[in-house]
Amino acid sequence: MSVDPMAYETQFFGFTPQTCMLRVYIAFQDYLFEMMLVVEGVMLKKLDGIPGCKVSPSQIRKCTEKFLLFMKEHFDKLFAKMEEVLLQLVLNIPKNVLLPEDRVQEQYPYSKEEFQALQDELQQLQQQCRAEAAAEQALRAELEEQKVVKAELEKILQCFDGLENICREHGAGNFKESFALLTQSSKKLQDVLKDVEEKSKKMKQHDQLM
What we know:
The chain is an all-alpha fold. The chain has two domains: 7-103, no CATH class; 148-209, no CATH class. Helices cover 81% and strands 0% of the residues. It has helices spanning 7-13, 17-48, 57-90, 103-107, 112-169, 175-209. Helix 2 packs antiparallel against helix 3. The longest helix has 58 residues, at 112-169. The N and C termini lie far apart (116 Å). The model has no long low-confidence stretch (mean pLDDT 80). One of its GO terms (cellular component) is nucleus. InterPro entries: Centromere_Mis12. Pfam families: Mis12. It is found in: Chromosome, Centromere, Kinetochore.
Protein backbone atom coordinates (compact mmCIF):
# COMPACT_ATOMS: atom_id res chain seq x y z
CA MET A 1 0.00 0.00 0.00
CA SER A 2 1.10 3.55 -0.71
CA VAL A 3 2.51 5.54 2.25
CA ASP A 4 1.83 8.95 0.68
CA PRO A 5 -0.70 10.70 2.98
CA MET A 6 -2.46 12.28 -0.05
CA ALA A 7 -4.02 14.90 2.22
CA TYR A 8 -5.35 17.03 -0.65
CA GLU A 9 -7.16 14.03 -2.17
CA THR A 10 -8.58 13.20 1.25
CA GLN A 11 -9.89 16.76 1.50
CA PHE A 12 -11.61 16.43 -1.87
CA PHE A 13 -13.00 12.88 -1.67
CA GLY A 14 -13.76 12.81 2.03
CA PHE A 15 -11.74 9.61 2.51
CA THR A 16 -8.13 8.57 2.02
CA PRO A 17 -7.41 6.89 -1.34
CA GLN A 18 -5.39 4.23 0.51
CA THR A 19 -8.45 3.37 2.59
CA CYS A 20 -10.49 3.03 -0.57
CA MET A 21 -7.94 0.70 -2.13
CA LEU A 22 -7.73 -1.35 1.06
CA ARG A 23 -11.49 -1.86 1.06
CA VAL A 24 -11.40 -2.89 -2.61
CA TYR A 25 -8.58 -5.34 -1.84
CA ILE A 26 -10.51 -6.87 1.07
CA ALA A 27 -13.66 -7.13 -1.07
CA PHE A 28 -11.78 -8.94 -3.89
CA GLN A 29 -10.07 -11.21 -1.38
CA ASP A 30 -13.35 -12.13 0.32
CA TYR A 31 -14.90 -12.84 -3.08
CA LEU A 32 -11.94 -15.08 -3.95
CA PHE A 33 -12.33 -17.06 -0.73
CA GLU A 34 -16.07 -17.47 -1.28
CA MET A 35 -15.48 -18.58 -4.87
CA MET A 36 -12.98 -21.23 -3.77
CA LEU A 37 -15.47 -22.58 -1.20
CA VAL A 38 -18.09 -22.87 -3.94
CA VAL A 39 -15.63 -24.65 -6.24
CA GLU A 40 -14.70 -27.02 -3.40
CA GLY A 41 -18.38 -27.80 -2.77
CA VAL A 42 -18.98 -28.55 -6.44
CA MET A 43 -15.95 -30.84 -6.59
CA LEU A 44 -17.13 -32.79 -3.52
CA LYS A 45 -20.54 -33.35 -5.09
CA LYS A 46 -19.08 -34.45 -8.43
CA LEU A 47 -16.58 -36.84 -6.83
CA ASP A 48 -19.22 -38.22 -4.49
CA GLY A 49 -21.23 -39.33 -7.52
CA ILE A 50 -18.31 -41.23 -9.08
CA PRO A 51 -18.25 -44.94 -8.01
CA GLY A 52 -14.95 -46.12 -6.55
CA CYS A 53 -13.50 -42.62 -6.16
CA LYS A 54 -10.78 -42.68 -3.49
CA VAL A 55 -10.29 -38.89 -3.17
CA SER A 56 -11.17 -37.84 0.40
CA PRO A 57 -12.59 -34.43 1.42
CA SER A 58 -9.36 -33.62 3.30
CA GLN A 59 -7.34 -34.12 0.11
CA ILE A 60 -9.73 -31.85 -1.76
CA ARG A 61 -9.34 -29.22 1.02
CA LYS A 62 -5.55 -29.39 0.72
CA CYS A 63 -5.79 -28.94 -3.04
CA THR A 64 -8.23 -26.06 -2.59
CA GLU A 65 -5.91 -24.30 -0.11
CA LYS A 66 -2.93 -24.81 -2.41
CA PHE A 67 -4.84 -23.39 -5.38
CA LEU A 68 -6.13 -20.53 -3.22
CA LEU A 69 -2.56 -19.63 -2.22
CA PHE A 70 -1.54 -19.69 -5.87
CA MET A 71 -4.45 -17.44 -6.82
CA LYS A 72 -3.78 -15.05 -3.94
CA GLU A 73 -0.12 -14.59 -4.90
CA HIS A 74 -1.07 -13.71 -8.48
CA PHE A 75 -3.94 -11.56 -7.27
CA ASP A 76 -1.62 -9.55 -4.99
CA LYS A 77 0.74 -8.87 -7.90
CA LEU A 78 -2.11 -7.77 -10.16
CA PHE A 79 -3.69 -5.67 -7.43
CA ALA A 80 -0.40 -3.87 -6.71
CA LYS A 81 -0.29 -2.75 -10.36
CA MET A 82 -3.98 -1.80 -10.29
CA GLU A 83 -3.46 0.17 -7.08
CA GLU A 84 -0.57 2.09 -8.59
CA VAL A 85 -2.61 3.00 -11.67
CA LEU A 86 -5.70 4.02 -9.68
CA LEU A 87 -3.71 6.14 -7.19
CA GLN A 88 -1.87 7.92 -9.97
CA LEU A 89 -4.59 8.38 -12.58
CA VAL A 90 -7.97 8.12 -10.80
CA LEU A 91 -7.63 9.03 -7.14
CA ASN A 92 -4.91 11.64 -7.59
CA ILE A 93 -5.39 15.42 -7.86
CA PRO A 94 -2.76 17.04 -10.14
CA LYS A 95 -0.46 19.58 -8.58
CA ASN A 96 -1.80 22.40 -10.78
CA VAL A 97 -5.43 21.84 -9.68
CA LEU A 98 -6.83 24.01 -6.87
CA LEU A 99 -10.01 23.06 -5.05
CA PRO A 100 -12.79 25.70 -4.96
CA GLU A 101 -12.59 26.09 -1.18
CA ASP A 102 -8.86 26.82 -1.43
CA ARG A 103 -9.04 29.51 -4.12
CA VAL A 104 -9.07 32.19 -1.44
CA GLN A 105 -5.50 31.17 -0.61
CA GLU A 106 -4.55 31.93 -4.22
CA GLN A 107 -6.12 35.38 -3.95
CA TYR A 108 -4.61 36.13 -0.54
CA PRO A 109 -1.33 34.21 -0.26
CA TYR A 110 0.66 34.41 2.96
CA SER A 111 3.84 32.91 4.37
CA LYS A 112 4.29 30.74 7.44
CA GLU A 113 5.60 33.73 9.35
CA GLU A 114 2.53 35.79 8.47
CA PHE A 115 0.25 32.91 9.41
CA GLN A 116 2.01 32.55 12.78
CA ALA A 117 1.68 36.31 13.35
CA LEU A 118 -2.05 36.05 12.66
CA GLN A 119 -2.32 33.14 15.06
CA ASP A 120 -0.53 35.12 17.77
CA GLU A 121 -2.75 38.14 17.17
CA LEU A 122 -5.85 35.94 17.30
CA GLN A 123 -4.71 34.45 20.61
CA GLN A 124 -4.15 37.93 22.07
CA LEU A 125 -7.60 39.04 20.93
CA GLN A 126 -9.15 35.96 22.51
CA GLN A 127 -7.39 36.73 25.80
CA GLN A 128 -8.59 40.33 25.65
CA CYS A 129 -12.14 39.18 24.98
CA ARG A 130 -12.00 36.82 27.96
CA ALA A 131 -10.60 39.61 30.18
CA GLU A 132 -13.29 42.06 29.03
CA ALA A 133 -15.99 39.46 29.60
CA ALA A 134 -14.69 38.86 33.14
CA ALA A 135 -14.55 42.62 33.80
CA GLU A 136 -18.09 43.04 32.50
CA GLN A 137 -19.30 40.24 34.74
CA ALA A 138 -17.61 41.87 37.75
CA LEU A 139 -19.22 45.23 36.90
CA ARG A 140 -22.63 43.59 36.62
CA ALA A 141 -22.15 41.99 40.03
CA GLU A 142 -21.09 45.32 41.53
CA LEU A 143 -24.08 47.03 39.95
CA GLU A 144 -26.41 44.47 41.49
CA GLU A 145 -24.82 45.09 44.89
CA GLN A 146 -25.26 48.85 44.44
CA LYS A 147 -28.91 48.29 43.62
CA VAL A 148 -29.37 46.35 46.86
CA VAL A 149 -27.57 49.04 48.89
CA LYS A 150 -29.61 51.78 47.22
CA ALA A 151 -32.84 49.97 48.09
CA GLU A 152 -31.76 49.67 51.73
CA LEU A 153 -30.82 53.36 51.87
CA GLU A 154 -34.18 54.31 50.42
CA LYS A 155 -35.87 52.27 53.17
CA ILE A 156 -33.81 54.06 55.83
CA LEU A 157 -34.65 57.46 54.33
CA GLN A 158 -38.33 56.56 54.30
CA CYS A 159 -38.05 55.53 57.95
CA PHE A 160 -36.43 58.85 58.87
CA ASP A 161 -39.06 60.74 56.90
CA GLY A 162 -41.77 58.89 58.82
CA LEU A 163 -40.15 59.71 62.17
CA GLU A 164 -39.80 63.36 61.21
CA ASN A 165 -43.48 63.48 60.25
CA ILE A 166 -44.41 61.92 63.61
CA CYS A 167 -42.30 64.50 65.45
CA ARG A 168 -43.98 67.32 63.58
CA GLU A 169 -47.44 65.94 64.32
CA HIS A 170 -46.62 65.88 68.07
CA GLY A 171 -44.96 69.29 68.06
CA ALA A 172 -41.46 67.98 68.66
CA GLY A 173 -39.93 70.50 66.29
CA ASN A 174 -36.89 69.62 64.24
CA PHE A 175 -36.34 65.89 63.90
CA LYS A 176 -32.57 66.26 64.14
CA GLU A 177 -32.83 68.14 67.45
CA SER A 178 -35.34 65.59 68.73
CA PHE A 179 -33.09 62.76 67.70
CA ALA A 180 -30.16 64.38 69.53
CA LEU A 181 -32.27 64.79 72.68
CA LEU A 182 -33.44 61.20 72.35
CA THR A 183 -29.82 60.06 72.11
CA GLN A 184 -28.88 62.04 75.25
CA SER A 185 -31.85 60.65 77.14
CA SER A 186 -30.94 57.14 76.07
CA LYS A 187 -27.42 57.69 77.33
CA LYS A 188 -28.70 58.95 80.69
CA LEU A 189 -30.96 55.94 80.99
CA GLN A 190 -28.03 53.67 80.29
CA ASP A 191 -26.02 55.41 83.04
CA VAL A 192 -28.89 55.08 85.51
CA LEU A 193 -29.32 51.41 84.59
CA LYS A 194 -25.61 50.83 85.09
CA ASP A 195 -25.72 52.56 88.49
CA VAL A 196 -28.72 50.45 89.56
CA GLU A 197 -26.94 47.25 88.52
CA GLU A 198 -23.84 48.22 90.53
CA LYS A 199 -25.92 49.01 93.64
CA SER A 200 -27.78 45.71 93.21
CA LYS A 201 -24.49 43.82 93.12
CA LYS A 202 -23.30 45.60 96.30
CA MET A 203 -26.55 44.75 98.11
CA LYS A 204 -26.23 41.09 97.16
CA GLN A 205 -22.68 41.02 98.41
CA HIS A 206 -23.80 42.66 101.71
CA ASP A 207 -26.59 40.11 102.17
CA GLN A 208 -24.15 37.26 101.62
CA LEU A 209 -21.82 38.66 104.31
CA MET A 210 -24.70 38.95 106.78
